[in-house]
Please model this.
Amino acid sequence: MKPTVTERVKETAVGRSIFRVPDRETPRERAEGHWANFFLHLYPVKIRREELGFRYSWYLGVISLTLFVSLIVSGVYLMFFYVPSPTTAYGNIQFLQTSVPFGQFIRNVHRWSAHLMVVAVMAHMAKVFYRGAYKPPREFNWVIGVVLLVLTLLMSFTGYLLPWDQLAYWAITVGTSLAAYVPFVGKQVSQLLLGGPQVSSATLLRFYVLHVAMLPVILVMAIVIHLWRWRKDGTLDPGGELDV
Model:
């Protein structure tokens, strides 16, 4: 059989220097290539046929991760035009929406991605719960999923103050006041978030650092652990026909 263009390219000196992976023909060889690849190792070598369809998972996990990536990309763009200071924060938002190219669009993408991510994560957890996928041996990964939901809500909550308008100011005031009623640690948590007895410039700075640095890093680490455990614990249901 006549070799294809791709095969001819691989046989050249340049092709051999680029494509270092040999052709894998048998299932064992393909599995070895799967295990040796950093990105492909995230997914199982074999998967049940029904799990490839949309109806099985509704792709809610993929949707949540895609929205998180959208938040990171749009958030980095917004950071170029925002200063976490009570004297400039609201003006930065107005400048972003009226004078920055695609500023209004990027901010709307960021805001709606945040709202949709909360909905997607909650729907994902609900589907996992009703399918019974939290049962042994996946209890720990269910706990990680709960942590991811809490981190998602905290990301949304900390970003709410950043525009520094009246709606954000009073929403954070009410939210931190409610946190003070948590048994044993409520007052400490409220003071930690506020940076003082009431909402001030320290509050804005702390929420900004939480929103753009601490929470995203923790969220990424939790997502990595969540995907790793999903890979190690297997998929949702026992039984079923496997596809390579």
Summary: Confidence is low (pLDDT under 50) at residues 238-244. The chain has eleven helices and two strands.
